Amino acid sequence: MKHQREIMLGIIGAGGHAKVIRDLFRGINKKWKLVFFSAVLPEQGKFYGEQVYLDNHDILHEYFSLIDQWHVAIGNQQARRKKMEFLSDHGKQILPAIHRYSVVAENTSIGEGSALMAGTIINPGTKVGKGCIVNTAASIDHDCQIGDFVNIGPGCNLAGGVTVGEMTQLGIGTVIIPNVKVGRYCIVGAGSVIITDIEDYSFVVGVPAKTVRRIIPISGG
Length: 221
Fold this sequence. Notes:
Blueprint: E1 8-12, H1 16-28, E2 33-38, E3 46-47, E4 50-54, H2 57-63, E5 69-72, H3 77-89, E6 97-98, E7 103-104, E8 109-110, E9 115-116, E10 121-122, E11 127-128, E12 133-134, E13 139-140, E14 145-146, E15 151-152, E16 157-158, E17 163-164, E18 169-170, E19 175-176, E20 181-182, E21 187-188, E22 193-194, E23 202-205, E24 210-214
Parallel strand pairs: 1-2, 1-5, 2-4, 6-9, 7-10, 8-11, 9-12, 10-13, 11-14, 12-15, 13-16, 14-17, 15-18, 16-19, 17-20, 18-21, 19-22, 21-23
Antiparallel strand pairs: 3-4, 23-24
């Protein structure tokens, strides 16, 4: 029987979010070889027992021929997008991370590099863009549209037909009623209940959620 080479998965990031991603992929297949890349190397030289190298373009280029698939495990949306664009520009496959204890219905779409944590529920007709994080026990009901690089906090509940624009952050426990649209580059405070549409670049909090200030667009936003 011909020996098969072990699958190597390159993971960029070695912070708190990367801890969860490591556990997620270990739960999917313990035989995969995980290799981490971090802007700051850990003092012990390993990341929870896994090999870790410095994250810079020269070192990443050295591993391009060795690593089969990639995932960017960085919580910050801007940094995550930048790293994913770098990998895509070099033709690398960016794997979504879908926890074995998440529920993903048929007739859904999960974008490259997105992460669905334990207990998440994605119902039919929903599209999750690329580079998103749907955190622990969050639920997204039918026919929702989630833009690229959205962060959805633990315990969020999105009813059917909700739209969330790119680069928006939903804080822990956010609730959104059916058919509401949340714009691009918004920040929603923890525990907020959204019952009306939210304009782009808004910071909203409360029950019901209200805009407390506008967000100044960053370069390229």
